[in-house]
Structures are given as structure tokens and as C-alpha cells.
């Protein structure tokens, strides 16, 4: 009902990951549009990761292969948007958020 762009903006306002992506994007001099595109890549990947993780109980090898493929696809999409080096900065920042949010 909202449309993809409006939904992404609404979801971003509630997601702690977005503030991290926004900070990295600002540090890298990226536009707001590019920042939202990066965020969409992470969102798409998280949905795919969750789906693949549900398969672990039934098909662990297939699920593991799926997770690797999702990670590779995410990295390629990010590199296509912002270049390889900046993509890795985003991935490291996202990983740090994931680790911190789990209380590790």
C-alpha cells in the first residue's frame, strides 16, 4: 500500500541498523538515495537469511549452501552499488551491530 520507497523509509526509521548504515554512508559521502539502496540490500538479505535458517532442522547442508549464496549475493549487490571497499565497510559495520545486539 505504501510503495517500496515509502515502506523502506518507514521501516528504516524504526530499525537500529539503518542509523549505522546512515553513519557509514555519510562517512563515505553517499547520497540519501544510495543509502536507502544499501539498506534495501541488507533488508532483502536478512529476509533470505531467515528463510534459509528455517531449513537447518530439515536440510542442514542445503541451508548452509543457501546462506553462503545469500552472503555472496549480498556482497556482490553492495559492491555494485558502492564499490568493493565501501561494501566491506558496510558489511563490517552490520556485523558489529549483529554481534552487539546479541549481547556478545
How would you describe the overall organization of this protein?
The protein is mainly alpha-helical. It has a domain at 34-90. The chain has helices at residues 4-14, 16-27, 32-54, 60-82, 84-101. It is globular.
Strand content: under 5%
Number of helices: 5
The low-confidence parts are none
Which radius of gyration do the C-alpha atoms yield? 14 Å
- Largest sheet entry: none
Identify the quaternary structure here: single chain
Global structural class: mainly alpha
Structure summarized in a few sentences:
The chain has 104 residues and is mainly alpha-helical. The protein is 84% helix and 0% strand.
What descriptive keywords fit this protein?
mainly alpha; 84% helix; 104 residues
Amino acid at each position: 500500500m505504501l510503495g517500496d520507497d515509502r515502506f523502506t523509509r518507514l521501516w528504516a526509521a524504526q530499525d537500529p541498523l539503518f542509523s549505522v548504515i546512515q553513519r557509514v554512508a555519510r562517512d563515505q559521502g553517499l547520497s540519501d538515495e544510495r543509502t536507502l539502496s544499501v539498506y534495501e540490500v541488507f533488508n532483502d538479505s536478512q529476509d533470505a537469511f531467515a528463510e534459509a535458517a528455517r531449513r537447518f532442522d530439515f536440510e542442514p547442508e542445503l541451508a548452509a549452501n543457501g546462506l553462503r549464496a545469500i552472503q555472496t549475493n549480498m556482497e556482490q549487490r553492495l559492491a555494485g552499488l558502492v564499490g568493493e571497499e565501501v561494501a566491506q565497510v558496510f558489511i563490517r559495520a552490520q556485523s558489529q551491530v549483529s554481534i552487539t545486539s546479541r549481547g556478545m
